[in-house]
Amino acid sequence: MPNPPAPAFLQLFEPDAAAVRDELVQGLLAPHAHVAPKFLYGPLGSCLFDAITLLDEYYPTRVEASILEANAAAVAEACGTARPLVDLGAGNCAKAAGLFGALQPSQYVAVDISVEFLRQSLARLQQAHPALPMLGLGMDFSRALTLPPAVLPGPRTLFYPGSSIGNFDPDEALAFLRQVHAACDGGKLLIGVDLVKDKAVLDAAYDDALGVTAAFNLNLLRNVNALLGADFDPAQWQHVAAFEPVRSRIEMHLVARSPQVVHWRGGERRFEAGERIHTENSCKYRPDDFAALLHDAGFRGTRLWTDERRWFAVFVASA
Ligand SMILES: C[S@@+](CC[C@H](N)C(=O)[O-])C[C@H]1O[C@@H](n2cnc3c(N)ncnc32)[C@H](O)[C@@H]1O
């Protein structure tokens, strides 16, 4: 038997060391220090995220996958079949792979900032689906969502699962969805959105008993150390995550356990005990509010599917 082809991979994201450094330093020196959630990912961060999805408390992955499985035929009818399927923040590519049977994509395009993890996920997937043309794109889509000519033209299905849209504030989400609208090239958006629910359920999902989410959050400091030549000691920081009802979002922070000075090449900052670094937001929506956001971004004909408890929603909308 001939070997299945290796998926094509385009490394669009050549981390611009100076720009990454500027972004990180600006955030660390801000009065309320912050680091963007994209810095949570990398070889270890992506594995820790996969571990989170197996936790009892972390319902979003399981519930979203069950909605997609239960409604695969209707979702395929709404999205159309035999189109390029572009998976934004593909991670281990498992959710998209679950849709191959229903969507019969003409090409699978997996996009992620965590380049090595994506390369390995996609290589495994290509072995399992040797006849499906696959393309990996290593890119940071928070800068710009520009797809290269190697992505087949539209109409395309843009798949944005995992409620990752919640990492953007609603204003940023609108701007991002407008870019997604253009990338659909006359096709559809298939997007997973976590819904507002009981605070105790939300808090537990982002602060599990085993401490896996804590490790995921603390690992950001290791990533910052590597990128900036910094000397954060993760043992001196504590993971904190809770639902903030006024802004309808989970806020994830790292809190200094003791007063300390953190150094990096060309700079430093003193953190007092209790001072925080804001590392992630995860906005939770009401279905009508998210449908309105899709409409403002230019999408029409929105349909949605949800689970019995209405914990999570999957939307399809036309570009
Ligand atoms: C919450 S995980 C979701 C993974 C998978 N799609 C799922 O639903 O289980 C978010 C994914 O988006 C990727 N990601 C985060 N920020 C990104 C960015 N700015 N550009 C590209 N990928 C990004 C991460 O590396 C990670 O694989």
Task: Quickly describe the structure.
The chain has 319 residues and is an alpha/beta fold. Helices cover 36% and strands 25% of the residues.
Descriptive overview:
With 319 residues, the protein is an alpha/beta fold. Helix content is 36%, strand content 25%. It has helices at 17-29, 43-52, 59-70, 72-79, 94-97, 100-103, 115-128, 170-184, 199-205, 212-228, 287-296; strands at residues 8-11, 84-88, 107-112, 134-138, 157-160, 188-194, 237-244, 249-256, 260-264, 267-271, 276-283, 300-306, 312-318. An eight-stranded mixed beta sheet has the order 1-4-3-2-5-6-13-12, sandwiched between helices. Strands 7-8-11 form a three-stranded antiparallel beta sheet. The longest helix has 17 residues, at 212-228. The protein binds S-adenosylmethionine. S-adenosylmethionine binds at residues 38, 41, 46, 49, 61, 89-91, 95, 111-114, 139-142, 161-162, 164.
Helix tally? 11
Low-confidence stretches: none
Mean pLDDT equals 96
Q: Just name the CATH architecture of the largest domain.
A: 3-Layer(aba) Sandwich
**In CATH's first tier, which class of the largest domain applies?**
Alpha Beta
Topology-level CATH name of the largest domain: Rossmann fold
| Structural class by secondary-structure content | alpha/beta
Distance between the termini: 42 Å
Helix content: 25-40%
Provide the spatial order of strands within the biggest beta sheet: 1-4-3-2-5-6-13-12
Any idea what the radius of gyration is? 20 Å
Bound molecule types = S-adenosylmethionine
Main sheet? 8 strands, mixed
- Per DSSP, what share of the residues sits in E-state strands of 2 or more residues? 15-25%
